[in-house]
Task: structure prediction
Amino acid sequence: MLTSSQRAALRGLAQKEEPVTQVGKSGVCEGLLDSLDAALEKRELIKVTVLENSGLTPKEAGEEIAAALSAEFVCATGRKLVFYRKSKSEKARKIVF
Result:
């Protein structure tokens, strides 16, 4: 669980990030979760866009993805979602609180 100051720091770091993928018409599917899992392991902090035709609100998509990947749903700004998960690999760890 993230504290409010950690969440604020992650939001600041996420401003510079580009979205790694999009949640589209097929919603949150297995292929999307696999790619997000690999991106989280490598980067720790990722941004995802939710398209309007996805059928999910950004908050619904964020909660579903976070639960499936055991990640922290940092925030939803418009249709952009930010996720954080500490990397299992010591070499890949970039964010220190």
Summary: The CA atoms of residues 44 and 95 lie 7 Å apart. The helical segments are 4-14, 30-43, 58-69. The chain is about 40% helix and 20% strand. The longest strand covers residues 45-50.
